[in-house]
């Protein structure tokens, strides 16, 4: 009898896991498109507080940044992410960084490591952990680093840009086009974003 | 001699304050890699291309099946699947299949990371490096659907092609290639 219960529970667990995987991969494929409304979320910040977009009453929008400690591309962009927050938070577009990886696969991205990295680099923005890995699939994020710019309207937060920060990961001073800055500048002027989607190599999100 | 240095290094690291631990360890790692470079990577000739130069590898029309895998030494899932690509190359090389491993490693780490890795793993498939920082301009040219995460793989024969932004196991990879035989 005991064995049967055990076997059943294993089967149920397996079934649940596989069902979850299917749902998860479906969501991943969809994700937000330009013009979609982004749902709010509630995620834990490295200071222990819970953060959601609705906390930011005065914000005009957000620079949502999926990033992590362990991806070399993400690390190369850290200083530029800090610079984005320093430039745009006061103008109403703060950076909200979210770490989407499964920390069992990437222990270097666990909560303590996140705290440590944020302290070392002097992050001036929240660095949230997507512990349940429920938020990144909604966005349709596939990799780190990846940016989603949201613009707050009466209907909600509209996705205005999806992609990379600029066109030269190697050398910030050799950048020709600053996609994220161009997009936020346009939004601040009440104009349409010209380049709404860009792509860059990044580290796949670890599930 | 090496052992002695290592002991000294360990002692040094231990004697440092907690705060400095990581930096010290990192420095030691770097030094160790330099040593490896000097000994082992000199003989490896790495072909490096910008996208314009690389494009020819995506558009050959010689009836061969090309398996183009985009990877990097820093990408854990890529490293995990590399042996499958190696096995594929070995098993099918007489059947008109060629695997090309396209490294997206950072160019400043070719000597320190990529070449020592190729040497250590004794990679038999052709390895080339793609070094083109303006990624948004070339990623869609590889495939319109590619979001840019790696591993990613293109399998093609003349005008027929398939793109995968995922990790493979050997069986899946084999099946995809064998589909091109039909």
Automatic annotation (TrEMBL), chain A:
What InterPro entries does this protein's entry cite? AhpC/TSA, PRX-like1, Thioredoxin-like_sf, Thioredoxin_domain
Q: Recite the UniProt keywords alphabetically.
A: Signal
What region holds the Thioredoxin domain? Answer: 32-189
Q: So where does this one cross the membrane? A: none
Is Signal found in the keyword set?
yes
Matching entries from CDD domains are given as: PRX_like1
Q: Does the keyword Nucleotidyltransferase apply?
A: no
Please name the GO terms that the record assigns under molecular function.
antioxidant activity; oxidoreductase activity
Q: Where is the signal peptide?
A: 1-21
Name the chain's protein: Thioredoxin family protein
Organism of this sequence: Wocania arenilitoris
From TrEMBL, chain B:
Membrane-spanning segments: none
Superkingdom field: Bacteria
> Where does the record place the Thioredoxin domain?
20-182
Which PROSITE patterns does UniProt cross-reference here?
PROKAR_LIPOPROTEIN, THIOREDOXIN_2
InterPro entries per the UniProt record, alphabetical: AhpC/TSA (IPR000866), Thioredoxin-like_sf (IPR036249), Thioredoxin_domain (IPR013766), Thioredoxin_ResA/DsbE_sf (IPR050553)
- Molecular functions (GO terms): antioxidant activity; oxidoreductase activity
Q: What is this protein called?
A: TlpA family protein disulfide reductase
Q: From which organism does this entry originate?
A: Wocania arenilitoris
